[in-house]
Amino acid sequence: ECFLDLCCPFSKKMFVALTTQVLNAGPDKFGGQVELVFQNVPQPWHAQSSYMHEVALAVSLVNEAAFYPAVSAIFEAQTNFFDDRVMDKTRSQVYSDLIDVVVPALAAAGFAEVTADAIGEKLALTGEGNSGSAVTLPMKWAIKYHRLRSIHVTPTVLVNGIEAPDISSGWTGEQWDEKIAALLA
């Protein structure tokens, strides 16, 4: 399990290494024994982090299989959502910018049904006051999950439910391969 923040450069580095250098070879590389589980950890000191995770979760509500391509697209455009780039933007503007990032990437990945309207529908408020949206409950569950496990820093990795503090965001694909092979031995 990788506990990652979409606004964290170190989380991005880890995600990119895992998805492009380690797990991109398919399930046969490790005999189908390894699965990457992405755990959403929006960090409160970057308000836009919540919006980034909400958009990714909205995508997953439209089509669960589109989640990882959406995460990849958001990570790729990550610097566009750093504090200095969004300070004067509203929540709706940040959502719109994020949707503009993920929709073309998802269409290119074969998820044309995940449209801007479909994502926007999941982000729309369901009522008055603090009614939230369709992603409010999944966000609460994600936050509760990482808090119950005392995960406060990103990235953090758990292997079979146990924290692996030796794993670093700076690891190369080769270092990941060595760690995974040792765990499977």
Give your account of this protein's structure:
By secondary structure, this protein is of the alpha+beta class. It has a domain at 46-151. The chain contains 8 helices and 4 strands; from the N terminus they run E-H-E-H-H-H-H-H-H-E-E-H. The chain has helices at 9-22, 47-62, 67-76, 83-86, 91-108, 116-123, 136-148, 173-184, and strands at 2-4, 38-40, 156-159, 162-163. A 4-stranded mixed sheet has the order 2-1-3-4. Strand 1, helix 1 (9-22) and strand 2 form a beta-alpha-beta unit. Helix 2 (47-62) packs antiparallel against helix 3, helix 2 packs across helix 5 and helix 3 (67-76) packs across helix 5. The chain is globular, with a radius of gyration of 17 Å. The mean pLDDT is 95.
Question: What keyword list fits this structure?
Answer:
185 residues; alpha+beta; 4-stranded mixed β-sheet; 8 helices; 6% strand
Short description:
This protein has 185 residues and is of the alpha+beta class.
- Biggest sheet: strand arrangement: 2-1-3-4
Shape: globular
* Mean pLDDT figure: 95
Q: Percent of residues in beta strands?
A: 5-15%
Please count the beta strands (DSSP E, at least 2 residues each): 4
Please compute the radius of gyration using only Cα atoms.
17 Å
User: Which structural class fits the helix and strand makeup?
Assistant: alpha+beta
Assign a percent range to the helix content: 40-55%
Largest sheet: 4 strands, mixed
* Topology pattern, helix = H, strand = E: EHEHHHHHHEEH
> Low-confidence parts lasting 5 or more residues at pLDDT below 50?
none
